[in-house]
Amino acid sequence: MKKIVTLGVLLLSILAVGQDSIKTKVLRIKIKDAIDPRTNRYSKLGMERAEEVDADYVIIELDTYGGALNDADEIRTRILNYKKPVYAFINKDAASAGALISIACDSIYMAKGSSMGAATVVSQDGAAAPDKYQSYMRSIMRSTAEAKGRDPRIAEAMVDEDIDLDSIATEGKILTFSTSEAIKYGFCEAEVDDLDDIMKRAGVEKFEVEEFKLSSTERIISLFLNPLVSGILILIIIGGIYFELQTPGVGFPILASIIAIILYFVPNYLNGLAENWEILLFVVGVTLIALEVFVLPGFGIAGVLGLICTFGSLILVMLNNDMLDFSFVPREEVFVATATVILGIMGAIVIMFISGARLLNSNILKRITLQEIQDRDRGYTSTFYGKISMIGMRGRTYTRLRPSGKIEIDGVIYDAFTRGNFIDEGIEIEVISDEGASLKVKEA
């Protein structure tokens, strides 16, 4: 009997030790920048990580002046749908969209000297947005507060300056709470110093914290969103297409261009910046340019529209616009996106005119192309068309020369090429060299 009791005590002790070793899992997500597609994706990955590790608590640390309403709404919805407690830790500022995200959390804690509120929707110039946006913001602030048991009128007063709540919010002023005011009116549980303080107030003694960080893949994706890198990719896209047209059959320029297109569009698409229609606009632009070069004569409407669609798409992909509505896109972002594309184009033009010859004479191309010249004075016979020189003879282009193609002289079809310029079909030409396997011609 004593042995049975002793064994039972031992088992209880083991279970107690096991219970003591179990720690509560806490995942901390830091939002320190403007609320935009990048922040939206970052928070989405963070919440997915919380589900993956089965975190008991999620702490969202905020220090933001707000940002895009649509992205904030998606973050808010994600928080409301999470099945375990999500706490907001306002470490200085949670304005506008930041206030909406905070109110969606189960509990709100604020550091000393922090503030929350000022959720009026503003346009890119800082003026209040049209009432339809304000109405939507008021409704989601109100419904979010109701869902978390907070006063919906106070939440609405953070958006609407016309709401008068006696001593809480006077008419004509947007409501912004300090830490003490938020505590007083039920929009903050307590003033805290750090995460440890939050967990103690939540009654959790033993816990382990995981700081959410982007994976290496996500950091690489973020790297390609840098305007400098985007400019280089645009340079490669344009330069690759140009050199492929100049040296058809090489393959390397167009391959580089395709890789640059992927690296430019995919990161922006994953971060919610590139919409399907913007990518389609780029495809349409490139298609129109190709039709202009290979099918349609001259350079007309198709070419101009193609350039507008292509370069317009490259700019729009970098901007969080809503079907060409730039009301909430900061002017500096528009400037940076436009300047990035323009500098990329200018860089490509410089490379085309200055570095083209160097590229063709580079060691890389020397390894894959014929470099030796079989000169006549070294005993080589280079004339393909017989003993009679064809220099000075005239005919017409049988196909478009771009810069190579076919010509017709006295009813006979010959291979021909120009000095680099394009000549349309049916144009009179003159032979200026007959060495090699094709004739060199110019427009007569």
Polypeptide structure, described:
- With 444 residues, the chain is of the alpha/beta class.
- The protein is built from 15 helices and 13 strands.
- It has helices at residues 2-21, 37-53, 69-81, 97-103, 131-147, 152-157, 179-184, 195-201, 216-223, 227-246, 252-270, 276-294, 301-316, 331-360, 363-368; strands at 24-31, 57-64, 86-95, 107-111, 115-117, 176-178, 190-192, 207-211, 394-397, 404-409, 412-417, 428-433, 439-443.
- Strands 1, 2, 3, 4, 5, 6, 7 and 8 form an 8-stranded mixed β-sheet that branches. A 5-stranded mixed β-barrel has the order 9-10-11-13-12.
- Helix 2 runs parallel beside helix 3, helix 10 runs antiparallel to helix 11 (252-270) and helix 10 (227-246) runs parallel beside helix 14 (331-360).
- It is elongated.
- The chain starts with a helix and ends with a strand.
Features:
444 residues, alpha/beta, eight-stranded mixed beta sheet
Helices and strands, with pairings:
Elements: H1 2-21, E1 24-31, H2 37-53, E2 57-64, H3 69-81, E3 86-95, H4 97-103, E4 107-111, E5 115-117, H5 131-147, H6 152-157, E6 176-178, H7 179-184, E7 190-192, H8 195-201, E8 207-211, H9 216-223, H10 227-246, H11 252-270, H12 276-294, H13 301-316, H14 331-360, H15 363-368, E9 394-397, E10 404-409, E11 412-417, E12 428-433, E13 439-443
Helix pairs in contact: 2-3, 3-4, 3-5, 10-11, 10-14, 12-13, 13-14
